[in-house]
Amino acid sequence: MGARAEPVRQQMRLRGRSYVAFVFCPFVPIVGWLEEIDATLARSPGFFVGKPVVLDLSAVDLSQSAIAHLVTSLESRNIRVLGIEGVDAAHVTMSMPPLLTGGRHCVIQQNKPEKPAAKPKPTSLLLESPVRSGQSIIFAEGDVTVLGSVSSGAEIVAGGSIHIYGTLRGRAMAGVNGNPAARIYCQKIEAELLAIDGYYQTAEQIDASVRNGPAQAWLEGDVMKITPLN
Amino acid sequence: MAKVLVVTSGKGGVGKTTSTAALGAALAQSGEKVVVVDFDVGLRNLDLVMGAERRVVFDLINVVQGVAKLSQALIRDKRLENLWLLPASQTRDKDALTDEGVGSIIAELRTKFDWILCDSPAGIERGATLAMRYADEAVIITNPEVSSVRDSDRIIGMLDSKTVKAEKGEHVKKHVLITRYDTARAARGEMLTIEDILEILATPLLGIIPESQDVLRASNVGSPVTLSNAASAPARAYTDAARRLMGETITMLVPVERKGLMNRLLGRRAA
Question: Chain B residues with CB inside 8 Å of A152's CB?
């Protein structure tokens, strides 16, 4: 005699959930009220599609057949009634939407119209002429690219990397907002000072072997490495 | 159309006043109506170099302040009838210049002359910025040595930001004029090369003026070097530069030293 495996019983779990519904409050004469509904639908035909609608009948005194008729009229207009409130339980039959109680007033929030997407802020700065002595270029939002040389006595301060298609003779400070991955690239390195994320090297400390050719400066830990770029 | 040209440098003592006088005289000699304006208020030199220091009655500051009319302050050159000078004041200083005053003088000069050469003072303060403020073109005087080149670079940056033309988004046409080019030191490789200078300044070259005793002699006799000794090397270089300013294309001659035989045998190099 073998034990019969019991089918696994799944516990039925009851949960609560609240929804916001539109409340329709019909007034007498009902025909007049239905005409108002028609006018609204004419203006915005799909307005009530998919939205749960509750009928609040506390302002009118309808018989059971009148309620049934009203529900049918609304359904013929593509308005599905979720529930009815404000009537005696006796008036509501099983074929009608259920009686609801305990509804709370709440404000219907309009969907805010989508704000036009803000123009994306530029994240890199392009300079097409050389940077002259005494000029100071500060761009904390990202990379800076210079199509020309950076003269002695000029400085470039960037939140990102610095790319110089020319000779760097001035100061270059990259990664100023705490970006240790920033790098400095140039076609010829004669810089006065290089700094990445606060770690700096002056011209004296730059190895002679790196000079007079394309080079890049980057951070390895807290040491700045300057290597030829080929 | 009148052209306002500022002769500037940043660094002092490189040859702005000499060049203003020499270029002004060369332009006047080719028939243009030229006025040279001294903006170095308090340390004026253009009147000395032009040989007009004993004829100064009214000056730029008097005109700015409305004390005198422009025609009262302008001094005609004795040698060239279409070359005029507007001297600076020696008793005042640059704070007496105002933007509106300079603007109205330049506007009035534009109606009377073909070329208005503004001799800028050294530095980057008010005198220099006002001299360049209304310029259409600029000649940047540079000596072939590092401090002059760096200062010239600074001035080029300011020409692109502090002039009326730059503020309107237009372009001030710039030229580099290399002065005091010492041919002997260049031959020995002791000076910045022309290529280095042009690479750093990234501006077209107007001319190369050799270092010469003729320049000092000319200013001592109160004459622009192009007038006092037109055959000398600097005078010829300035004349070529003036012709380039007027739009001619002339091959650039790099000055070379020519030593005579006796000089080679007996000459001693100056210390």
Answer: 150, 153
**Tens-digit pLDDT profile for residues A50-95:** 777 888 888 888 888 888 888 888 888 888 888 888 888 777 788 8
Q: How far apart are CA B98 and CA B41, in angstroms?
A: 12
| pLDDT at residue B19, rounded to an integer | 97
Task: Residue A196: count other Cβ atoms within 10 Å of its Cβ.
Answer: 25
The pLDDT of residue B237 is 96
CB contact under 8 A, B150 and A151: yes
DSSP state of A21: -
Nearest to B109 by CA among B210, B36, B188: B36
DSSP B8-48: E-SSSSSSHHHHHHHHHHHHHHTT--EEEEE--TTS--HHH
What are the C-alpha distances in Å from A9 to residues A2, A5, A12, A14, A173? 20, 11, 9, 15, 69
Q: Answer yes or no: is pLDDT of A222 > 70.
A: yes
Token pair belonging to B209: 């003026």
Comparing alpha-carbon positions, the chain B residue that sits nearest to A148 is B202
Q: Do B153 and A148 touch (CB under 8 A)?
A: no
Residues 6+ apart with CB under 8 A from B105: B37, B60, B63, B64, B70, B86
Which tens digits make up the pLDDT trace of A133-163? 999 999 999 999 999 999 999 999 999 999 9
Q: Would the CB atoms of A133 and B153 count as touching at under 8 Å? A: yes
Q: Do A132 and B151 touch (CB under 8 A)?
A: no
Task: Give the Cα separation of B107 and A178 in Å (integer).
Answer: 52
Q: How far is B257 from chain A (nearest CA, A)?
A: 31
Cis peptide leading into residue A29 (ω within 30°): yes
pLDDT at A229 over 70: yes
Instruction: Please tell me the distance from the alpha carbon of residue B239 to that of residue B24, in angstroms, as a whole number.
Output: 10
What does the alpha-carbon distance between residue B196 and residue A167 come to, in Å, rounded to a whole number?
A: 12
Spatial distance between the Cα atoms of B84 and A154, rounded to a whole number of angstroms: 39
Nearest to B26, CA basis, from B253, B229, B251: B229
Write the CB contacts of B86 (distance below 8 Å, at least 6 apart in sequence): B35, B36, B37, B38, B59, B60, B63, B70, B73, B74, B75, B105, B109
Asked if pLDDT for residue B271 goes beyond 70, the answer is no
Separation of CA A56 from chain center? 38
The Cα angle at residue B179 between residues B222 and B142, in degrees rounded to 5? 120
Which of A21-25, A73-77, B37-41, B255-259 reaches the highest mean pLDDT? B37-41
What pLDDT shows up at residue B84? 97
ipTM of the complex: 0.81
